[in-house]
Amino acid sequence: MASRRSRPRGVTSPKRTLRVVVNTRPDEGNGAKSALTPASVAVPCNGCDTPKTLPNERAVGSLALVRARSSLLVTVAAVVIVSVLGGWWSSRSSDDTYELETTTGSIALNKVAEGSLFASVDLQTATGARVSTDTLIGQPLIVNFWFSTCEPCRREFPVLVDAHEQYGERIRFIGVNLSDSAETATAFTDQFGATYETFFDRDGRLTSALGVATAPVTMLVDAGGVVRRQLTGEITAESLTAAIREVFPS
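^ that's the sequence the OP posted. Answer follows.
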C-alpha cells in the first residue's frame, strides 16, 4: 500500500471555494457608466469546505428570487396558453357548431345580431343569379346558415323542414349556404325533402356583415328587417318552436 505523504508542519490545506462575481448596481444618474461592484458569494461545490456567509450574499439571493419569479411567470403563461388552445380545439371539435374557414387564424366567434337590421347584400341562386336581401324583407323570415359537411347542420335540418311545413304559410324560410357548390347543396336539400329557398353567400358578405363565424346559425327576422332572435348552434324542435311563438306569435 502506498504511504500517504505527510504535510510539512505549519502548512495548512487551502480552502477550495468557487466564487461568483455579480454586478448588483444598475446604472446611476448623470450619464455615468455603471460600476461593477463585486458581490462575492461562496457557492457550494463538491469537495469544498462549507462556505461562510458573506455580506453581499443577499444581492445574489435577490437575483435568484427574480429569476425564480421570471421562471414562474413563464410557466403560468405556458399553462394559460395551453388552456386557451385546448378550449379552442374543444370548441372546434364540438358537435354544437362548426367553425368556418378563415384566413386570419383567429378564433371564430359569432357576434350577436339581435336588434340590428338584416344586412343589405347580394346573394346568389343555384343558377348564379343575384338576389338582394332587400327583396326578402317585408314578411317574417327564418334564415338558416349552413353547409353540407357540418354535422350539426345535418342533424337539425329535419327540424327546419318540419317547421317550414307547419309555419311556411306565414313565415318565409330561407337557407343560406356558406361553402357548397350548387350541385352539392341541392343534393343535400333534396335528401331531406326541403322545399324552401336556398341562396349562396359566395363572397361571404352576408356572414361578414352579420358576424356569423360558425354554423349553424338561425335568425328570426321580422317584417321590418330587424333580427329579433339569433339561435347559434344546433336547434331542436323545442327551441325553434319556442322562438317562433315568442317572436312571431299567431
